[in-house]
Write a structure and sequence with these properties.
4 domains; 1125 residues; alpha+beta; Topoisomerase I, Chain A, domain 4; globular; 38 helices; 5-stranded mixed beta sheet; RT_dom; nucleus; 7-stranded mixed beta sheet; magnesium; 30 strands
């Protein structure tokens, strides 16, 4: 029988079926992260096999079979593990051979000559391979430096290397004959010189040098970390933390942002200061620096002789002002910096896009004008902006000059101040406490009668404030704010900008977008693409080129029209609407209303905030003279803090902003105060991990309750009935009452090292998938940068630290290490801490103050300082609670005691209520709660009700069983819609699914679902509460969507199914059991499904109509599940 012809195996088949099967399994890191940046992602074994030449059949068989034999050595198993677990990312340009590879090979031959070594195996010739591997790494580093012109290439292998050593720099290693030296030790380079990489080079034979050079210089290698779940460490390539999805394509054109990529920086409307005169009087309208006030249009030319010199000068000035204003509106057409084509300089702004309030320097350079704005110096007006566009901009200038913003504000947003003004005007009396509040003085030479008409008088006496239960009651209704903004913009923007007078469709759409913008919640955004929807651009006559009127439009012409119209829309929202809001309203969130936004008129906010500011100046701060403040700020890196007030009930809570980057000079942003304090934060974090006993009963998060309470319960004898005594109390104004000298003295005893090495690394995680449906793409990767402190004499590499515990609680993460480090003496860190706490300079208005009492609340160190300070209080005054019968918990300043001894609970409450003056501790009776009867100083302490559920930090603890449940009690005064954030952009269905799933994830902490700690009934009750809250937020989310984006019934039903299915996977996941060995969730999937459907049915049945089909499906499924029990 003749033998059949042997099948010729493809090069990709050499790795065997087992490796091919494993490559088909895409982990989240590979699928949702690496494949978004690299066209080709494969295992190291697959990459090596595909890189070998077709003639290397023996080598291919050896590599494919490596590690599969029973008698494989330890080094072979190690190499096989690296080959199968390591991922290699390859760009499109390096996936095919090119002339550059041959040039690189010729450079290598001149760098080091080698012969054919195909006879070498993994068991011989290793000494030579080690030397060769080291030489290849040196060559790759040199090669990367020769390709880059900067100080050092943005490549992990070059991290820590420099071109030429300065006199003050000591080289740890120098690449011979290149002038390149190592300033910081690069542990990745060291790892690539060691096993199993030289063994891999030896196994590759003659082609090994080419493969290894290409791998190290052109590819990105990700080594599997033996800690956590599916974590990797990047060994080579451009750092993933600095890589964009399109940055690997070197042939791509200059990036142009699409409207969907451009978002309005809405955060600029918050916490604005009012425009005031030299006498401190509040002004309405736009600020004096706004482009419309800087470049007005004067109408005096029409009232003078047309041939007079004055008339000519006025016309020339008007021409220059109009041209400048057009540069503000259409910067892209003039070649100025814009959001569409210009790069964002992180040294000039901390926002996603620049603030274009002031362009004078840039425009002056463009115009090359001298004083007086001569006409010959004006730049050439682009053809598309000539004619009607220029006339409309002039009309905009005129309408702005005529608009009485204060009258509009008083009409659409009336307050009690307006009523008081009208009453006094009718009576005809005056008050010495009243002050004029004029509108801003236009540079349009307004007449005297206009100036008088814009002047208003309002009281500064806070006694005129009406009674209120909450400060937010004094805010203007959001509908009134929207009406004011719509009216003001309608007054100043000519109607012809939106089309013909007969067809007002575009104007209606614009006003609807303005209303939507103002009603957005705290963290909701709106893109230029969303704003531009529904406009009929073809009806805008001013966009039609003069030479193309009456002709059929071409695709190129339509594209150019949209380009100009998008510029105009961005200007209206970014440079008209946002400044209009900032100039007339103080916009803020509150401490109790989650994401709801409140708009206070500036005159009202000043009346409300001034008493609070006065009490802060007198109690917490002391004024510092301007010269002294300037001297202090110039002598240190720490800048000054800025204070704002946050509504909290009937009071205002002071909040300090220490994250804001401050200007260095007039153009560059320096680091924030919190950034400067990061070395101290890293050192304290190190001490927290190495010496946790110094922190006493500290909880760093609410979730820490679980482990502490579970351990306490497990330490008690089981099956014995006990009475637990609970006591909870809160320290009044903890951060504001801590004595500065005491906390600084205590912190001197915390550091255990004389010096700390501060290293940095990045963690990159795949973004959440945009939907639960198949084929939905992932969101942008999540990048986080971390600082870590290590002792000076610790020689371990970053990989060793990851595998020794640092990465044990991470999953689906790619770590990117940095070779650079900073060495900090402990005494210098303590000096910086003393400067920060003892001389915290705060700027309020135009004056500087020093915080003489308490610690800065917005500081990145405040929580650490508070925890160490109160831990010392526990050691000095609450030592009687040490023992197995007591569990003391403290989340910052919220104390909770659980004990078996009632006397200890009483003594604890009495000790704290007596106060501890040396620690600044004073406890409020209104925030003290116990589950037994007791009195303090003849006053009864508030006792828990009969339900037996003790509230603490958003949870309930059962007083008999110590079971933990979530506090799902609704707040009747707060709408559920204020606790959600709606994505109004693209893919509304996918965003909806993601939000609903995340709503359940946030409530799925394992302390509520551990059946080892809680009973099954309690776990099912917590599960029902989580599903009910998820259903309520889902309903609120759907209600916030517009009618045009109403989601289908099938999508809603599919979302409910997915949430219930994924809920079971989350609660019973192996990852949870891996992180917490004692965790168990012994509930069946059928119980989860039945509970979820029942909860969704209960919530939706009580809501408004519109979910009939969904409710019918839920009833059917609930009935079916009930019959199958």
């Amino acid at each position: 029988m003749p033998r059949g012809k042997k099948r010729k195996r493809d090069t990709k088949d050499a790795s065997g079926n087992q490796n091919l099967a494993s490559s088909k399994h895409h982990t989240p890191v590979k699928k949702d992260l690496l494949l978004q940046h690299y066209p080709v992602v494969s295992t190291l074994r697959e990459h090596v096999l595909s890189s070998l030449p077709d003639t290397s059949k023996i080598r291919r068989k050896k590599i494919a079979a490596l590690g599969s034999g029973v008698d494989a050595s330890a080094i072979e198993k190690q190499l096989a593990h690296v080959l199968d677990s390591t991922l290699v990312g390859t760009s499109a340009s390096t996936s095919t051979k090119s002339d550059s590879e041959e040039a690189t090979w010729q450079q290598w031959l001149s760098f080091s000559q080698r012969g054919d070594e195909s006879y070498v195996t993994i068991s011989n010739g290793i000494a030579a391979s080690i030397a060769k591997q080291s030489e290849i790494i040196d060559f790759v580093i040199w090669r990367l430096f020769t390709r880059e012109r900067g100080p050092w290439p943005k490549h992990i292998l070059c991290d820590g290397f420099r071109r030429n050593a300065r006199d003050d720099q000591s080289a740890r290693y120098t690449i011979p004959g290149t002038g390149i030296f190592s300033l910081y030790p690069n542990f990745h380079v060291k790892a690539l010189r060691e096993a199993p990489w030289p063994q891999l080079l030896a196994l590759l034979g003659q082609a090994g040098e080419r493969v290894m050079i290409n791998l190290l210089s052109e590819c990105s290698v990700f080594l599997k970390v033996d800690a956590g779940l599916d974590n990797y460490l990047q060994l080579t390539g451009i750092p993933l933390s600095e890589l964009d999805a399109t940055s690997l394509d070197h042939n791509s054109k200059p990036h142009i942002c699409k409207p969907s990529d451009i978002t309005i920086v809405r955060s600029r409307i918050f916490y604005a200061k009012p425009a005031t005169t030299a006498k401190g009087l509040v002004q309405a309208g736009f600020k004096h620096i706004h482009a419309l006030n800087r470049h007005p249009y004067s109408s005096e030319a029409s009232r003078t002789d047309a041939d007079s010199q004055k008339s000519i000068e006025i016309r020339q000035q008007n021409e220059a002002h109009t041209m400048k204003l057009m540069m503000y509106i259409f910067p892209r057409q003039f070649g100025l910096h814009n959001v569409f084509t210009s790069a964002i300089d992180a040294n000039q702004t901390a926002q996603k896009f620049h603030d274009y309030t002031l362009r004078e320097d840039e425009i002056t350079k463009k115009m090359r004008a001298t004083k007086g704005f001569p006409e010959k110096s004006l730049p050439k007006l682009p053809k598309r902006l000539r004619g009607s566009t220029r006339d409309l901009v002039q009309r905009l200038q005129v309408l702005h000059a005529r608009c009485s913003y204060f009258e509009l504000l008083r009409h659409y947003c009336p307050t009690f101040l307006d009523g008081a003004h009208r009453k006094k005007k009718q009576i005809g009396t005056s008050d010495s406490s009243t002050i004029p509040v004029p509108l801003p003085d236009r540079a349009t030479q307004a007449t005297e009668s206009q100036s008088k008409r814009r002047t208003r008088r309002y009281t500064t006496d806070t006694s005129v404030l009406p009674e209120y239960k909450s400060v937010v009651e004094l805010a203007c209704p959001i509908t009134c704010v929207s009406a004011f903004c719509q009216a003001a913009l309608s007054k100043i923007i000519p109607d012809n900008f939106w089309g013909s007078e007969k067809n007002c469709h575009n104007k209606i759409v614009f006003l609807r977008k303005v209303d939507h913008f103002i009603k957005l919640r705290r963290f909701e955004m709106i893109s230029l693409h969303e704003i531009a929807q529904d406009f009929k651009v073809t009806e805008l006559a001013w966009l039609v080129p003069p030479a193309c009127e009456g002709q059929k439009t071409s695709p190129t012409d339509i594209k150019r029209r949209y380009e100009i119209f998008h510029e105009f829309l961005y200007y209206v929202f970014d440079s008209l609407l946002i400044p209009l809001i900032r100039s007339n309203f103080y916009v803020t969130e509150s401490n109790t209303h989650r994401f709801q936004v409140f708009y206070f008129r500036h005159d009202v906010w000043r009346l409300v905030a001034e008493p609070s500011m006065l009490s802060l100046r007198e109690g917490m701060f002391e004024e510092v003279k301007l010269n002294e403040a300037t001297r202090i700020l110039d002598s240190r890196r720490l800048g000054f803090s800025q204070l704002r007030l946050l509504p909290k009930g009937t009071k205002l809570r002071p909040i300090m902003n220490l994250r804001r980057r401050q200007m260095k000079g007039s153009r560059w942003l320096g680091p924030s105060i919190n950034s400067i304090l990061k070395p101290i934060h890293a050192a304290l974090k190190f001490e927290t991990l190495t010496n946790p006993s110094k922190l006493g009963s500290t909880l760093f998060a609410v979730g820490d309750i679980y482990e502490r309470l579970k351990s306490f319960k497990d330490s008690l004898m089981p099956n014995i009935q006990r009475n637990f005594y609970f006591a909870k109390l809160d320290v009044k104004a903890a951060f504001d009452t801590i004595p500065q000298s005491s906390v600084l003295n205590l912190m001197r005893s915390v550091p255990s090292q004389a010096q700390y090495i501060i290293t940095k690394h990045a963690e990159v995680k795949p973004g959440e998938r945009l939907g639960l449906t198949e084929g939905a793409g992932p969101a942008k990767p999540v990048r986080r940068w971390h600082s870590t402190a290590i002792p000076q004499n610790e020689p371990t590499s970053f990989l060793d630290r990851l595998e020794s515990g640092m990465g044990s609680k991470k999953k689906n993460t790619v770590f990117v290490d940095s070779a650079a480090f900073q060495s900090h003496e402990t005494r210098s860190l303590l000096a910086l801490l003393s400067e920060h706490v003892g001389r915290n300079i705060v700027k309020i208005g135009k004056k500087y103050y020093r915080q003489k009492k308490g610690i800065p609340q917005g500081s990145v160190l405040s929580t650490f300082l508070c925890n160490y300070f109160y831990a010392d209080l526990e050691a000095q005054h609450l030592g009687f609670l040490d023992g197995p019968d007591c569990l003391l918990l403290r989340l910052t300043d919220d104390f909770l005691l659980i004990t078996l001894d009632k006397d200890k609970a009483i003594r604890f409450v009495e000790t704290m209520h007596q106060g501890v003056p040396e620690y600044g501790v004073e406890v409020g009776h209104d925030k003290t709660l116990v589950n037994f009867d007791m009195c303090v100083e003849g006053e009864s302490v508030r006792r828990l009700g009969s339900d037996g559920k003790f509230p603490y930090c958003g949870t309930f603890i059962n007083c008999k069983t110590l079971e933990i449940t979530k506090d799902h009690r609704p707040n009747k005064d707060i709408d559920i819609s204020t606790s959600i954030t709606v994505d109004f952009g693209r893919s509304p269905g996918q965003n909806f699914q993601r939000k609903v799933l995340n709503s359940f994830k946030y409530q799925s902490h394992l302390m509520f679902f551990d059946t080892e700690h809680n009973s099954v009934d309690t776990v099912l009750g917590s599960l029902r509460g989580a599903f009910s809250e998820t259903a309520l937020k889902m309903w609120a989310y759907l209600r916030c969507l517009s009618t045009s984006t109403r989601l289908s019934v099938n999508l809603i039903i599919g979302t409910i199914k997915k949430v219930v299915d994924i809920a079971f996977l989350i609660l019973t996941s192996k990852w949870r059991k891996k992180r917490f060995e004692k965790y168990a969730c012994e509930i069946r999937k059928g119980q989860v499904i039945a509970t979820g459907y029942s909860a969704f049915l209960e919530v939706l049945s009580r809501r408004q109509a519109g979910y009939g089909e969904v409710i019918a499906w839920l009833k059917e499924e609930t009935a079916r599940l009930a019959t199958t029990k």
